[in-house]
Amino acid sequence: MYREMLLIRRFEERAGQLYGMGMIGGFCHLYIGQEAVVTGMQGALRATDSVITGYRDHGHMIAAGIDPKVVMAELTGRAAGISKGKGGSMHMFSVEHGFYGGHGIVAAQVPLGTGLGFAHKYKGDGGIAVTYFGDGASNQGQVYESFNMAELWKLPVIYVIENNQYAMGTSVNRSSSEDQLYRRGESFRVPGLQVDGMDVLAVRGAADAAVAWVRAGKGPLLLEMKTYRYRGHSMSDPAKYRSREEVQAMRDKSDPIEHAKKELIEMGAATEASLKELEKDIRAIVAEAADFAEQTPEPDAAELYTDVLVGKY
Amino acid sequence: MPEIKLPAMSPTMEEGTLAKWLVKEGDTVKPGDVLAEIETDKATMELEADEGGVVSKLHVAAGSEGVKVGTLIATIAGEGEEAAAPAAPLPLAEGAGGGKSPPPAPAAPAEAPKPAPVAKDSPPPAPPASGAETMHRQTVREALRDAMAEEMRTTPEVFVMGEEVAEYQGAYKVTQGLLEEFGATRVVDTPITEYGFAGLGTGAAMGGLRPIVEFMTFNFAMQAIDHIINSAAKTNYMSGGQMRCPIVFRGPNGAASRVAAQHSQNYGPWYASVPGLVVIAPYSAADAKGLLKSAIRSPDPVVFLENELLYGQSFDVPEGDIAVPIGKASVVRSGKDVTVVSYSIGVGVALEAAKILAEQGIDAEIVDLRTLRPLDSATVLASLKKTNRMVVVEEGWPTCSIASEIIAIAMEQGFDDLDAPVLRVTNVDVPLPYAANLEKLALLKVEDVVTAAKKVCYR
Fold first, then answer.
1. Which of B223, B239, B297 to mutate to test the interface with A (most CBs of A within 10 A)?
2. Catalytic residues of B
3. Is ipTM over 0.90?
4. In chain A, how many domains are there?
5. Residues B311, B11: contact at Cβ < 8 Å?
6. Where would a tag sit more exposed on chain B, N or C end, judged by fewer CB atoms within 10 A?
């Protein structure tokens, strides 16, 4: 899990650099600071389960086991990108890895993920759907339409609210009459838990409990992950709505990777030296992904017209 | 002395069957007592007494079919009144229905007979693939249900969801009998939550199922349009072709009858403007069935636009498992003088107009587009090449319409074949009014099609 979190962190840092160099365009939402959430969750899942999220999706893809090269190549808009360069940062998918996107409309993934859960139940394949969304998305009406149907039909869905405290520039307190987001399912009888989303082991523990609950057919469950993003909402956000001190304090005291590192060393599961070695490996993987993403060609002009419809009419 | 007339029990009901009398002459009834069971094409409904009294006369025998709305069916003498011979039946204009009917189906808030222009007699169905099929008469409503049932029998991933599709048997009775045959797992009643269930259905399609999502009307789908367009239509492209979304969004579209502006809009042009969608709007029952089967089998997201006023109309439908290809228009009437292009209920209007034009020596060819996206411009252009004149007929607004698109195609690709400017005949460019006279003025009119056709023929 430490390795995975570090890979996401280094990948995102590199993506930020490539954005600064003009290699990545449009919107680009980095996951830095929130790595423990997806890492802890993913470890509790089976290969047959489904995962869906919003536009801050790079970390979820890496956690789902997707090759960082094809993710980075999508960010640079190349033919070798996972969406052939036609989706970009916010729109990436891998059916093979059970990763259903990558959705750019805030909260649209919530009913979609509920539908993935519906499909698991309909097929009786024992799978569950993990549906991630943010504190901002939690104020969209379709979230509650989804909670209602999921509980009504006892669908196998885990709703993970990644509460990074800011919906773009608006803090949870300024936007939410009930700011304890784990309680947001109460009027639909969807139980909720609040979890320290900066502690990967706490996340993993909550994930195991939630997966057991949902897989047992008890209906949906809501996990509120209290987390924090270090960077702006997207690359173009100067983040003037919070102080530099607030961010720095979070980095110093609550960083999920530093926290895990300390625990690993204390447990005797790793040494400073072995972790340095790991860091080197990860930097090499990320460098390779970035080089690939810079060098691999853009899509052929003919790709403009492909994949609009599947059928021939 | 109250006269009980057969009420209109939905905006589109014109006649019904008096299935059963629950009272007999001489009985005393209280307000709220059930007098009779009436079968409409949509449902069996109970007719209650508004006022108490003695049933003095039953004018229509139980089991009578085709009883027109407004027909005097019983006379009840008020308390203290002498039972007397009934007056002659009054005409319908006196407000058939009124307070006499039980509440209609939830989607049918108004209770007046329909004034909208609809062809009363249907043309033969579009030329089928081979000429040898046996035909049977069927309503559009039944044809749609059969299409779903047949596909559900062969493909376990196909399921239907929407408001009132299961236990209520469909707000417009299109899903009648499906719950009984396929059970609640595959025929799913949803809460009133269009945005939610459109998204849920789209997610289920991504997860490998083949949902049919019914909107009680497409007017309510505006709440859900983000999922139809952003989630369903764009995902295959955005994923480089790996994330399929085989889903059908279906339901009635366009004006119904006296349901006013928020319930009367044609969304054909909206959806037809979106790459990544297939958009179908059939006229006949044969096409409704064959195209719905193709839509369910399609690997793409399909918006399937039905029309409430066509649900009860009967057409010849070929027996058996016959799918009509998507993206192919149909020449429903062959002619040499002018091409009239239309789709959905507009085809009926065009056919009516063609009859009048024929009497005046103008031989109109009618092209039913059937699919709005991808549009079969080849058939339109071939007909234009033949007649050199064209009118587009559309039950919808004129601005940025399918008619606009057809005219652009004629300009760009058929300019040399044009002997006159293409004209469009559409609804008036206003929100649809409620008042019967204004509604009539706003909707597509046969006489306007006749006028336009004569104009392009310089007659």
1. B239
2. 194, 263
3. yes
4. 1
5. no
6. C
